[in-house]
Amino acid sequence: MKNITSSLPPQNPSHILMPHILLVEDDDRLSKLITKGLQEAEFEVSTAYDGSTGLKLALQKNYDLVVTDIVLPKKDGLEFCNEIKALKPNLPVVMLTALGTTDDKLEGFDAGADDYMTKPFEIRELVARINVLLKRFSQQRQQKIFVLKYEGIEMSLEQKTVSRDHISIKLTPKEFNLLKFMMENSEKVLSRSEIAEKVWETHFDTGTNFIDVYINYLRKKIDKDFENKLIHTKAGMGFILKKDYETGNS
């Protein structure tokens, strides 16, 4: 196959958990070339050489994305993609094929493919398309989180309501946003400057104590009437939402 290169610089040397790609390709030489290129781009890659094995693997493990050929033994790529999308609609699929007509592409998209690449192609372009899909699907998954929960606190992001142990708690918009940020970062110490930037979208003025004031407002509503206190101060560092936090409580 022409125009496949595999010499790529690492995408993100600091990335610890590499995205896991399932590659379904029956051409052994091409499979090895693509695998090498994706690994150099810092993806973890598992391979299958037919559609039936690919389907089995895709259902057994949690992959971040699937790259599949259309012409495959045992189960073709279109059928494979259709079944994957029916069972795992949020798993992005890139379809590879030597067939490049408009009708071929439409058939691939109708089967549920999220992107379509015609052979021959450059590994760099495949990596770029994979990164676009991973980012898009990650954003979609984040947007689908409508309820935050932590230790009896339940926050509806759609209805803007908060309760603890099924008792409704009324918060002002800023209190709501502050609690939301703390729940999104539960069990992590948050500095005053972080809170000011993320909740108030401003740089922290060390001459004011408005963060402390709002933390106290929140404590009175979230913790005051409950035995287990969840909002704590880490002296000299910031605040944390955590159960049974002992060091530096206030």
TrEMBL record:
GO MF annotation terms: DNA binding
InterPro entries the record matches: CheY-like_superfamily, OmpR/PhoB-type_DNA-bd, Sig_transdc_resp-reg_receiver, WalR-like, WH-like_DNA-bd_sf
OmpR/PhoB-type domain ranges (all copies): 145-243
Keywords: DNA-binding, Phosphoprotein, Transcription, Transcription regulation, Two-component regulatory system
Domain (Response regulatory): residue spans on this chain: 20-134
Protein name per UniProt: DNA-binding response regulator, OmpR family, contains REC and winged-helix (WHTH) domain
DNA-binding region: 145-243
Species this chain originates from: Chryseobacterium jejuense
Annotated SUPFAM superfamilies: CheY-like (SSF52172)
Keyword presence, Transcription: yes
Presence of the UniProt keyword Ligase in the record: no
PROSITE patterns recorded: OMPR_PHOB (PS51755), RESPONSE_REGULATORY (PS50110)
